[in-house]
Each structure stands twice: as structure tokens, then as C-alpha cells.
Amino acid sequence: MDWPVLSILIFQPLIGALFVCLVRGDQELVATNVKAVGLWSTGITFLLACFLWTQFDATVSNFQFLEERTWIPSLGISYLLGIDGISIIFIILTSFLSFICILSSWEVITDRVREYMVGFLLLETMILGAFCALDTVLFYMFFEGLLIPMFIIIGIWGGPGRIRATLKFFLYTLAGSVLFLLAILLLYLEAGSSSIPVLMRNEFAFSFQIWLWLLVFASFAVKIPMWPFHTWLPEAHVEAPTAGSVILAGVLLKLGAYGFIRFSLPMFPDATAYFTPFVFILSVIAIIYTSLVALVQEDMKKLIAYSSVAHMGFVTIGLFSLTIQGVEGAVVIMLSHGLVSASLFLSVGVLYDRTHSRLIKDYGGLVDKMPVYAFALMVFSLGAIGLPGTSGFVGEMLVLVGVFPISTWTALFAGFGVVLGAAYMLWLYKRVIFGENTMERIGALSDLGVRERCIFIPLVVAILLIGVYPRPVLNTMHLSVEKLLLLSQPSLQVKKISLVK
Amino acid sequence: MVFACIFLPLFASLLVALFGRSLGKKGAQAVTCVSIVLSAGISCWVLATAINNGTVHSVQLFEWIESGSFSASWGIYIDSLSALMIFIVTSVSALVHIYSIGYMNNDPHVPRFMCYLSLFTFSMLILVTSNNFIQLFFGWEGVGLCSYLLIGFWCRKESANTAALKAFLVNRVGDLGLILGIATIFMVFGTIEFANVFRLAPEVSGQRISLFGFSCDPITVICLLLFFGAMGKSAQIGLHTWLADAMEGPTPVSALIHAATMVTAGVFLVARCSPLFELSEVALLVVTLVGGLTAFMAGSIALVQVDIKRVVAYSTCSQLGYMFFACGLSAYSAAIFHLFTHAFFKALLFLGAGSVIHALSGEQDMRKMGGVWRLIPATYGMMLIGSWALIGLPPFSGYFSKDLILESAYSSSTWAGTLVFWLGIAVVAMTAFYTAKVILMSFHGKFGEDEKVFARIHESPKSMMIPLFFLAIGAVGAGYFGLGMVEGNNLFWGNALYVSDSHAGIKFVHHSPVWVKLLPVIVSLGGLVSCWLLFSKYRVRFIHYLNRLTFVRQLLVKKWFFDYLYDVALTNFLKRVGYGLWRAIDESVIDALGPQGVADVVLRTSKRLSQGQTGYIYHYAFVMIIGVACLLSFYALWGAVI
Description:
heterodimer; A: mainly alpha; two-stranded antiparallel sheet; 2 strands; B: two-stranded antiparallel sheet; 4 strands; about 75% helix; globular
């Protein structure tokens, strides 16, 4: 490839951010222009990502669009980019959601618009960079760097308790990441390279793998988040602005699971096999525990935040099942959850914009006033439940089918999550949408406007389309997943001591 | 042609969903009704082809989910079983669509209603024409969703919303069984296509696999899991509580979804998987016992209900029990025969009840009805036909199918068969009793409500009466038509239903003694007489005797305590657990040790450290001196050690 496509993709939003900084004029003009620049910038990035997908060769399992430049030659650390069939899905998701986010903040953010846009565009660059990076140091830089704009977005444009929440979020995830940095250093000292493809092929000693696996796990488990490292998430969500929640739930959580895919599974296959029961137990607890907690939440955003933890439990189960159905199902769940949870947070945002309340008890009988909204929310809820015909089903079914031969108990308990998921989602829907309308601020309720419809229609279409015809997504990743599984085979000796079966 | 039959309802539904506002009420009614009637017309052709040629029609559309060796595709598979189901679904659905024109006339949301009905019909057709388990599950959940939407159609009513939620969740519990069943099937067979699974089943039978830490027979596990799913959808004991509450929905919905079609999906599933069930004696036994128990329990609860729709709902539950124990005794064709006749007479009963409710301005409580048979004679006549068919008196359709089931139970000569035979006989008596009660309470006697309602009583419009008329024809004639299905050595079924040679099925029904054939009729007459006693001059003494049975009465009125158990033991318990986990564990323990703890430690440490930044030179100088002193002494000691 002659053009450095990935670099262009990654730094495109950054160029947009530069333009945003250059905009001059009175405050109103700046706000309008800045938004326009943001929209164009993210739009072009999305188109680029789609273009990348059309150019992506799904018949090859290697990393594609490779770019390599020397960065720190004395240490052999290079600027190495490349994508496979798994990361391209996340790249498309990220660019799509970023575009939606800019659109959704159009009228909501009136204060410090310029800084907000810069923050968002920077965030997009960092996330895309993390998904493209094939060098551990480069990955770490992007992976940690994205905390800064996220920290600022929650800390400035968030709710009343934003400072506390954002500190908690920042410090806790950073604490996990320090261990990850340690892991990177140890890997470098052991293998003498920081390139991910090289490290994947390296065979480490079992005891070394165990320690490294734990270090890496600490960082990613916080990010995903797995039980019991999840409590930063509800608070961060509640305080974050709508668009912040969308990116947080839609993309950031996936970075943790992506970390498992890139590091834990292929680099430490023996340790992975050793710890699989442990991960299964944590995931099952996460699914049932957080579903029950979600059931009794009074704040809509908190409910959705807890449900995210439950969904990510399915993801970790799928990944560690190490079957092709399980891993592909996990990736589809991540894609689906990216769309669904983003949609749900946007839906809550729509209500919050109108009435400035997120409490469930403040709502009721919205279907009369907002029929289009009620329909959209129904589709999103069904997607979250995983009804056949929505994207959620494809993922959940594949994960259950994949994990069933590995551990029947895990599949059974994860299945309870399917029932509980329907309970909290539909109960929420019933209390908000159905019933008698008893709201005081009923006059403030109006159905979705043109801009909001432009946001919701693509999401509804995407969720249903992936549900009925997921083949393009699955075909893109088949070979990459097979390669991943090949690398993740534990050695025979470890298979014996593994507790599974 | 087959495509048109299946996709016309979807097309109508989408059209109304997208352009409902511009189509208006009349437009929406016209579009959906015409589509479904066309679809029903084609279904006759499909059924006729299946009967005459016995051919299996199979089309693959495109791949749906494909991952490794797991592959599910969209396809259409038609054999005689699905052809018959298509016929039942589309014909009842068409009549219900037409009926709804009159019944829902004053509702402001007619387009939405018609859209849901058509969508339901499509989902049901997808369910019965599927060629693999995943697509079946798609239809399975699709009908569940439509049922949810339609039960909660009057979404301002709190009770309707609760009932809808309950229906969805109870079904979801059953679905868990189905999902795990499908996962087990894939694990054991490596495929989820019906044809391949059934072909491989005899080879797998007898093997052992390890599931849940036990070594078990894979076929038995699969069958039990699938049957658990069927129990949810078909409201069998334990998972039946949603069906009676589902009566909160509009009556046409009850007729179509909760009597004729959706609730029979479980029976369809068991019949479809007969090649699997035949290989597992344990699973068949469970099916038999659950079916028999449900028939008895639901029949007994129906005795004391006073809401006209709830009586019919429990009766549905009870009749589904008949179908299941027939399946359990390998009399699949008898079960499907009963499903077929039941669809017509139960839809007739529901729509007739709807007509009564319509006439009485929305009254459903039978205690407030009575003495109206002269005012609405046509409805009365239809209800009588439906009731006779339900009780199973000759020459109505229910007689043929129910008798066949009871005779096959008797002739199976197993202990389970004998047990459910006697349970079934008891249910016959109860059926006769509550059916007669419905007729006597709502049509005879004295009117129980005020004069204003009485003055407004009127016969229903033609759009409601014509469907009733057609259903009445079905309720009378389905028996004769259906006899062809169960006689003549299974020519009709082809390979759709499989009965192992070691099982009796319906082979020996002709050898059963005369008293077995007569007993149901005698018993049902007994039930009728005792009900008549309750409403005659012996009423007082009769009630006096009944009141002595306090415990039984309590048991029945409280619906065998299932609802109580689930509300208190399950729903409230789970909510309390959730609340406890949230407040006590999540916020107090995990958060305090985790994120909050880390944040606190960092903040506290930094505050401490920042206190050191006093800005006084002598503070800094003092710290420096101490540091230097420490370093020097360390080196001095270090040197000494070495």
C-alpha cells in the first residue's frame, strides 16, 4: 500500500482539532463553525473507515495495511500500525459512534464548544490509534492517552458530581494501567522486542506467563469492567454528558476486551488456559450480580451502566471459551453492545434534554406524546435483550453455543442473564413508556426532532440489519479469529492441569 | 406461491407500520385483511398439495449466522405437518383480522393493532416452516414479542402492562431451556438442521456425554430442555401463570394467540422433534405426566373462575395438557388432530365471548351477566356450538379428537398412560361443568347488572358474526376432515411424524373396549347435570355441600398458589437481593475497597504530601539535612557490613 492509510485515518480527527483551534470570530459564529468542522472531520473519518473495509482482504489472516517507521531506534521500538479482521470492526464502530456523538451534542453543548470538540476529536484519534497499534509501547501510549480527553469531557461537561466521578474513573483505571506498563517492560526484557506480532509468536515459560497474565488482566479487567472492578462505571456514566457515555460504553469498554484478544490470549496461552475457570466464575458473577443490581436501579443511566457490565460478562466468557463460535460471538456482542448501549444512552439523553431528569419514577406514559421515540426505544431494548432479529441475539447465541461444550454450568448461569436482562429492560420500558402519564413537565415532551431522527434511524437500521444478515461482519473476521485461536492453543502439558472439564 | 403465503402478512405489517398514518384506519384494515385472506387462500392450496402429493418442499434462502461449523440459514421447509399448521394459522388469523374490524372499531390505534396482528401471523409462519432450530427460535421469539405487544396493547392499563411483562418473562424462562437445548444439539450433532439432526439421532442414542458434571444420555437431555421451552410457550404447569393474565389483551388477540396458534407452538415443537423424543423414554414420561397434571390443574382452576375470558383461558391450558400427554404417549397425530380441532372451537369460544363482552359494553364478569340469550341469539348459538365441541359431545369436532387421545392413553397399557387416562376422564367432567357454567351464568338466569347496560345490549355487527359463522363450521366439520389424518396408516403424515415401533401411539385404539369409548360422554353428561344442579332449585343445598370443601376451594381460588409463590418467593426475593447487593456489597464493600478506595488513598496521600510544601526555607533545609544524614549513615553501615 502506497498511502499510509491508517496514519491518515488516525490523525484525520487531529487535523480537524487543529482546524477547530484556528476558528476565529464571535462566540456564536465559532460555535457553529466548530460544530461543522467536527461533523465533517468525523464524517470523513467514518467514510475512510468504510473505504478501509472495502479494501480489506478477508481471505488473508495476516495484519494488513502495515506501516512501520523507526521511532526509538536505540530500543528497537517502532511506530508499527496494522489491522486484522477483528480490529477493523472496532475501527468502523468507533468512527461511526464518534460521528453520532458530534451530531448528538449539536444543541446540548453550548458552553465551551471549541474545547469540547477538540476533546472529542482527540479522543477519537487516541481510540483509533489504540485499535491500529501493533507495538506495545505505541498501544500503551494511545491506550493511556485517551484517558486524558475522557477525563476532561466528564470533568467539565458532566453532571453535579462530576469531579468525584472523574477522579475515581481516572485514578482507578490508571492504577490498573501501571501494572500493564510493568507487563510491557517485562515483556520487552524477556523477548527483546515490543512488536505485538513478534511477541505473539514468542513462547514464554509457564511461570512467566502466569505473572504477566495477571498484570495484563488487572489493567483490562478494570477497563472492561469485570466484576468486582466495575464500580467506577455506573458513577462515571451518571455524571458524564450523553456523548461521553456513548463513547465510554460504546467503545472504551471494548478496549479492555480487545486487550485480551491482542495480549492475553495469543501471548500467554498456557496462563489463559490455567485461568479460564477463574474468568468464567468472575463473568458469571458479573452477569447475574449486575443484572440483579440493574433491576432495582432508580436512575436510567445507572441501569444501563450496570447492564453493560452484564453484557461484557458474556464477552469475556466468549473470549475465554477459545472456540470459534465463542470468540466470534464475543466480537459480535461487542459490536452489538456498542450500538445498543450507545443508542440507549442517547435515548436517555433525549429525555434528559427535555425534562432534566433521569429518574425512572419521573416518567410514565410517554407513548402518547412520543410514539416515534417509543418505537426506537423498543428496538434498542430488544437489542439489549438479545431477541432474534437484532444484533444482540447473534452474539449471545454464538457465545452460548461456543461455551456450552467447554463448560455447561457457565452456559447455564450465563443463560440466567438472558432472562434477567429481559426483566430489567422491559420493566424499565414499561415504567417509562407505558402507563398513565403523570409527569409534571409533560408540556416539555415533544417527539423526536429531525436531528434526533437522523441519529436514531441509522442505529435502528444497523441493529436490525446485523441481526438478520450478520454475514459481512462474520466473514470479515473468520480468518483472523482462526489465527487467534491457533496462537492461543495451550501446550499439552498445561491442558492436563487446567481445571476445565 | 409458498413465498407469497408466508411473506404477505409481513408485507402488510410493514406497509401499515411505515405508512399507517397516511393509510388511516380503513386503509390499514383493508391492507392487512386482504393480505391475510389471500395468504389463507394460498394455504389451502399448500395443504391440498401436501395431502395429494405428500411432497416435501424445501428452499434455502441465504445464510444467516455462520461461524466455524455452526451454520444457520434462512429457509422454508414444508411437509404435511407444517402445511397443516400454515392452514390453521392463516385461516384463523384471517377470521380474527376480519373480526377485529368490528371489535376494535372504536379504538384510536387500529393501524397499530392490525400491524401487530399481521406481524404475529408472519412470525408464526416462520416458526412452523423453519428447517432448523435457530430459525424456529426466531419465530418462537417473534410470536412472543407480538404476544407481549398485544397483551399490553391498551398500554394505559396498569394491569395490561404487568400482564404483558409477566407473559414475556415467564416465556423467557422457558426460552432459556430452548436455547440450552439448541446448544446441546449443536454440541452433540454438530448441526442444527432438522433433517440432519433427525438422521443422526439413532446413532447418537445410547451414547453418554458429560453435562453439568453428570454423565447422561444426550437425547434425553436435549428433549427435556426443548420440552422446558415448550412448557413456557404452551403454558404447562409451573410456567402457566402468564396465560390467564394474558386475557388483559383485546379478545381477538386471546382468540388468535392465546388459544388457536401461539400456545400450540410447544405441541408443534414436540411433534416436530418426534424423532428425538421417540428415542428417550424418560423425556416421553415427563411429557406425559406434565401434560396430564396441567390438564387436571387448569381444569380445576377453571371451575371457580368468574371472568368469562379467564375460564376459557384455563380451559385452553387444560386442553394443551391433553395435547402434550398425547405426545408423551407417542400419539403425535392425535395431538396434532386435537390441536387442529381445538384451534377452531376455542377461537370460536373466545370470539363468541368477545361478542358477549362487546354486547355488554365491555363487561367480563359473569356474575354481572345473565338472561341475555334472547337479545343476542346468534352469539348464543355460536357459543353453544363452541361449548359442545369443547365438552366433546358428538357430533362436534372435539369429540373425535379428545376421544382418540383418551383411547390411545388407555390402549398404551403403561402405568403413565393409565394414570393420565383417568386424569383425562376427570378433566372431561370438569370441562363439561365449567363450560355449562359459562353458558348458564352469562346467557340464562337473571341479569345481574343495572338497567342502563341491559338497555344497550345489541347483537354484534356483521364483520364479527361472519367469522364466528365460519369458525362454527370449522368447529363442527374439523372432526370429520381430521379423521382422515389419523386413519389410513399415516399416509397423510409421510415422514413428518415418527413413531418408534416399540411405542403404541394410536395403533391399538380400535381395540379398546366399548366402555372406554362411552365413558367420556357419560362423564361429561354428569358434569353438565351437576352444573345444572348449581343453577336450579337445589342450588342452596348444593352450595352448602360445596362449602364444606374449604381447603379445595381455597386451593382453586388461589390458583394452586402458583402466583403467590412466584410473587413472594421469586419476584420480591430477587428485587430484595438486587437491592441488597447494590447497597451492601457494591457501594459499601467493592467500591470502598476499589475505585473509591484508590481515589481516597491518592487524594489523602497527596494532601499529606502537599502539607509538606510549606514554602519555608528552613523546613526544606531541615528535610535535606535529615536526608543527607540518612544517606551517610546508610553508606557507613553498608560499608561496615561488607
